[in-house]
Amino acid sequence: MPIHDLGYREWDVPPEALGWRWLVIGKTGIRNAWKNRWLSRVLFFLLAPAAMVGLAIFFFEQANQQPELRVAFARFLKGYPGTQEIAADVIIDPNTARHDVWAWLLFSFFRYPQAVGMVMVVGLIAPRLIAQDVRSRAFLLYFSRPLTPLEYVLGKAMTIWFYLVLITTVPALLLYVVGIALSPGISVVMDTYDLPIRIILASFVLIIPTTSLALCFSSLTHKSRYAGYMWFTTWILGWVLFTFMFGMTAFQNGGRQLSFDNSWSLTSLYHTLANVQQWVFGLQPSFSKVVPSLGLLIAITVLSWSILMRRVTAPLRQ
User: Fold this and answer.
1) How many CB atoms lie within 10 A of CB 117?
2) Rounded Cα–Cα distance for residues 86 and 92 (Å)
3) What is the DSSP letter of 260?
4) Are 209 and 297 contacting, i.e. CB atoms less than 8 angstroms apart?
């Protein structure tokens, strides 16, 4: 007996409340992303800087016991911008300076190696997450099931979140545990108890805006390479523009050294993230200086999320 009227049909049962269906999409994305050999290589090299930060924490704790090493560690700190006060405190009373030293080391871990690595990791994962579904018409399969657009987007975002947490939050928390283990006494916990919370907040600052922007780019095209171009161009052009304007401002001020948290940092998403993370780690006490950067990150997140949801729900409105 022949079977007639085959094909996709509209799901006429209201979807259930947000559950765990997005985890299935996320786990599938994580497995598919791991098949990229370049991703595994990048992750391996991004875990190496954690060892360098661990050595710096060990060196500081040894300097806490030996005055001659204390001077050497203070000289090491002075080689970086904005650390003169911390270096002076290390020489005077390293126990008082411990919180600021650890916070600065963790902030440097987030800002320099992991922020650059984040751009590479997301650039390898995110462009194909939605663009490939648009090209292959996989929306027909996803939304023929009781799956909401929000669950679909959360599943795609989980793929990026997993790898970003793997290169930022997890090694930073392990560094904190190692620092506690290398410390001379339990009093160190009282001095640095807030750092795990700051690590998690700094991870949110890094992960949420970048994930939203990357998925937004992926939803705007059906060719993943175009989404990759948009992603890398945003970071490279922002960096170049900030460097140029920062250099011009320094030249107009007679070569005087300027702070990296000036108004030109809003031209670069990399420096905008760094400004907010600096405040999260307690290294920038003035919240008013962070408000523009924080506002820009919120605006990018909201705008990217709005465009993303509109693009994802477009097939359902046809």
Assistant:
1) 19
2) 10
3) T
4) yes
Q: pLDDT value at position 14?
A: 58
Q: What's the token pair of residue 182?
A: 């290398």
- Maximum CA pair distance of the chain? 92
198-221 core/surface letters (b: 16 or more CB in 10 A; e: else): bbeebbebbbbbbbbbbbbbbbbb
How many residues in the chain?
318
Token pair listed for 44: 């391996």
Question: Running along the chain, 318 residues long, what does each successive block of 10 average in pLDDT?
Answer: 52 58 89 91 88 88 81 83 82 85 93 93 94 80 78 93 95 92 80 94 96 96 93 95 80 56 81 93 86 94 95 75
> How many CB atoms are closer than 10 A to CB 156?
26
Which pair of tokens denotes residue 1?
Answer: 């007996």
Q: What's the alpha-carbon Rg for the chain, to the nearest Å?
A: 23
